[in-house]
Write a structure and sequence with these properties.
This protein has about 350 residues and is of the alpha/beta class. It has helices spanning about 20-35, 60-65, 75-90, 110-115, 130-135, 150-155, 200-210, 220-230, 245-255, 270-275, 290-295, 305-315, 320-330, 335-350, and strands spanning about 1-5, 40-45, 50-55, 100, 120, 145, 165, 185-190, 215, 235-240, 255-260, 280-285, 300.
C-alpha cells in the first residue's frame, strides 16, 4: 500500500525519542517500510532522513516555540495549522491508499478531508476540549479510530465505544529489549522529566524502600526538574541522562524493578512494556491504562502514595523475571501491532 504517516510536530521523529508518541511514529514508519509498503512520513523537517520525509514544518515546534505546547499560544497554533493544512493538501493529491494520522490536530478530521483519503486516526492522549468534538463527529466507515487501551477508549467514549473505534495496543520489537535473567538490585525509572510523569514520586519511594534508583529521559520541564527532582538526587539516587534505544535497553535491563509513576491518565505507558521485555517487574501507580498493561507483571497502588509505592517495590521484586517478559511476548509485540495496523488500513480502504 501507499501509506502517508502524519506525525505530531512537537519533537522530531528520530532517536533518541522525546517520548512514546515519537517512538510510536518512528517504529510505525520503520516497520511498515520493512514489510514492503510505500511509506511517506509527514513530520518536522529535522526528523529521521532514513525515511521518505515530507516536511510539514522545517523544524520541530518545540525548537521555535519552547514551552508553548499547552499554553494556547496563537503564534504556535497558526504555525502548526498552516503546516498541517498544506501537508494534508499534498496527501489528498498524492494518490495514497490510506493516511495514518498521529498528529493530534483537528484538521485531518474535517469531513472534506476524510472523504478524500481513507484515514486511520490513532488517539494518543486523553480527551480534551480542543479535539473531543472533532473526534466524535469524524466517525465514518472510511475513518477508523484507534485508542491505545480499553481504558483510553472509555475515557473518550464513557457511555459506549462506537464500532468504528478499535483498541490498538502499542507493540515493541522484543529483540531490541533483551531479556536478562537477573538484576543488580536497583530500581529504574524512564520517561519525560515532567510533573505529569511523576519522577519525584519514584525518588521518594526508592528512598523509603532503600533501593538505588536511576532516572532516564529528557528534561522537559526545567523548572520542575530544578525545584522538585534535582535537589533530591545524590548517593544512590541519580540521573542517568537521555539515551537512544540500545543504550537505554542496556541500562534498564541491568536493574531489578521498574518504577512507573503517572500522575495523569496515561493512555498506554510504552516504557513499561520496554522494561517488562527486559524482565523487569513493575511497581507503580494504578492510573490510566496501567493495570491493563502491567497485569500480573507488577504491583500497582493509588496515585501519590509514596509509602504504598515503596511497599509495592518489595512485592514486585518477588515476581519472577520471566513473567513480565512472557506478558510482552503474548500481548505487546511489534509484529502483532503491525498486523492490526494493516488490517485497519484494509478496512478503511475498502470502505
Amino acid at each position: 500500500m501507499r501509506i502517508a504517516l502524519l506525525a505530531h510536530l512537537r519533537h522530531p521523529i528520530a532517536p533518541p525519542f522525546a517520548g512514546g508518541l515519537e517512538a510510536y511514529t518512528w517504529h510505525l514508519a520503520e516497520g511498515l517500510s520493512a514489510r514492503g509498503h510505500d511509506v511517506t512520513l509527514f513530520a518536522s523537517g529535522d526528523s529521521d532522513r532514513r525515511f521518505r520525509l515530507d516536511p510539514v514544518i522545517p523544524v520541530h515546534h518545540e525548537a521555535a516555540f519552547p514551552g508553548m505546547e499547552h499554553r494556547g499560544d496563537a503564534g504556535l497554533k497558526a504555525h502548526v495549522d498552516a503546516g498541517y493544512a498544506a501537508a494534508l493538501d499534498r496527501i489528498a493529491a498524492g494518490g495514497f491508499d490510506v493516511l495514518h494520522n498521529n498528529s493530534l490536530s483537528r484538521l485531518p478530521l474535517e469531513r472534506r478531508r476524510l472523504e478524500t483519503v481513507p484515514t486511520v486516526t490513532s488517539l494518543h492522549v486523553p480527551p480534551y476540549d480542543a479535539l473531543r468534538w472533532f473526534v466524535h463527529e469524524s466517525l465514518s466507515p472510511s475513518h477508523r479510530i484507534t485508542a491505545t487501551s480499553r481504558a483510553h477508549a472509555r475515557g473518550w467514549w464513557p457511555d459506549r465505544v462506537p464500532p468504528e473505534v478499535a483498541v490498538l495496543h502499542n507493540g515493541i520489537d522484543p529483540a531490541a529489549w533483551p531479556f536478562r535473567e537477573t538484576g543488580d538490585g536497583s530500581a529504574v525509572w524512564c520517561g519525560r522529566i515532567a510533573r505529569v510523569k511523576g519522577p519525584h514520586h519514584a525518588v521518594a519511594a526508592a528512598r523509603r524502600a532503600g533501593l538505588p534508583l536511576t532516572l532516564f529521559g529528557p528534561i522537559e520541564e526545567p523548572d520542575y526538574w530544578r525545584v522538585e527532582v534535582a535537589p533530591n538526587l545524590g548517593g544512590p539516587i541519580r540521573y542517568g541522562g537521555h539515551h537512544d534505544g540500545a543504550a537505554l535497553a542496556r541500562e534498564i535491563g541491568r536493574a531489578s524493578v521498574f518504577l512507573f509513576t503517572p500522575c495523569w491518565d496515561e493512555p498506554f505507558g510504552l516504557v513499561t512494556v520496554e522494561a517488562m521485555a527486559c524482565g523487569l517487574p513493575v511497581a507503580g501507580f494504578a492510573r490510566g491504562a496501567a493495570e491493563e498493561v502491567v497485569g500480573e507483571a507488577g504491583c500497582l497502588v493509588p496515585v501519590g502514595d509514596a509509602a504504598a509505592l515503596a511497599h509495592a517495590i518489595g512485592a514486585a521484586l518477588a515476581i519472577p523475571r520471566d513473567v513480565p517478559r512472557a506478558r510482552v511476548l503474548r500481548l505487546f509485540t511489534r509484529a502483532h501491532w503491525l498486523n492490526r495496523c494493516e488490517a485497519l488500513y484494509a478496512r478503511a480502504h475498502a470502505a
